[in-house]
Amino acid sequence: MKLINVCTVLFGMSVIFLSCGPRSAEQVDEGRQEQSFHLEIVDSIRLDYLGMLRVTDVHDKTGEIVGFNFKTNELVIFEKSGKIHQLYSKGGDQPHPISSVVSLGFYKEDKLLAASNYGDLAVFEKDGRHVGDIPLPFKIEFYNWTQRKKIYSVSDDMLLGQISGGRSEAYREYYLDFIDLKNGSLSPTLPIPEKSKYKNGQYYGSVYPFITMEGDFIYMLLRNEPLLHVYKREGMNIRYLKSIDFGGEDFTEVLPSEDQESFQWEENYDKMRPGEVRSVFDVGENLIVSYKNGVNASLYSEEIKSDPLRQDEVDPLYIAVFDTDQKLLSRRVRVPSKVDFIQEVMPDGAILASKNKEMFDKEDDFETFYLLELVED
User: Model-level pTM?
Assistant: First the structure.
C-alpha cells in the first residue's frame, strides 16, 4: 500500500476534514485462501400489512422496526414478533405530515427524525405527532430512491447526514453535512476519495451513494463500483482511511462517457445490466456488503430481462464479508433466492431481509421478512 502523499485540510465551522490520497485499494492477500461462509435463514416475521414497505431503521435498544410505504405515505412501526405498534398515513398532525420521506429513523430514544422531498427536516413522536422543525439555511434537495435512515445524531447539538444529492445530477463535491442544531448551519464533508473511478472526470451514470455510520466508522458505497470506502470520525473530524476492492472479473462495469449529456443510457441499461453495489451493514463480528455482478452485453437477452427466475440464476445477490478491521475475508457469498433486499440488522446481529415475491407463485395477503445469520463453514 502506498503511503499518504497528499493531504487536504479544510477548516470551517470548527470542522476539519482530512482527505488523503491517492492510495491503492486493498484486496485479499495474495496466497491467502478466502474464508468460507453461508447465509442461513433462521426465522421470519409475518406482518399483517400489505404494501411496498421498506425498512428504514431498527432501534438499537428495543429492536423496534420502522418501515415506510412511499406510494401511500404509510408509516409502520413493528417488532420482531410481527406485532404492529404504530400504523398511520402522513402522521397525526396534518399541517406537518410525514410524507415524501427521503430519510426516516429513530431519534433520541423515543422519537423519529424525518427528512422530506419538500425540503423539511423535522422531529415527530412515534405516533406521528409533530414535535418541531430543525431550521436549515436552505431546503433539502434530494431526489428520492430510498427512505432509509441517512441522518445520524453525533452529539446533543450536532447531526451528520445526507440532506442533498440528486438522482441524475453531476457528481457532488461532498456527500455529507454536519448540521448544527443550535443555529441550523451546515458544514459539508465526505468527498468521494481519489481512488474511486467516479473521481476520474468521466460520467458513469447515477451514483446512488450508500453511506452509513457504524460507531466511529463511516462507510461509503457507490453504485457501480465494488469498493468499500472507509472513513473514521474523530470528534468533528472525518478522516479517509482506505478503499477495499471486493469485486471480481465478472463485475459488469458501466460504459462511461465524457459528461452526463453524452451518457449512453440505452447501451448501459437496455442492452446489459451493470453491476450494482447495494448496502453495507455491521452484523457484530463482521461487516457485509450486498451487491450484484450484473450481466454483460454478450450474455444479456430478452429472456433474462423478462424472467425473474432467470435473472436470479444469472445475476444472483451476493455479499462480501469483512472482519471488524475491514479486512476482506470472502468476496462472494450467495444470498438465498428467497431474499429480495437486505434491509437492516437487528440489535442481536440478525440480518433483516425482505421476501423476494417474484420467486413465489402464490401472493400472500401479508408481508414477510426473513432473519438471516452469517455462518462460517
Answer: 0.88
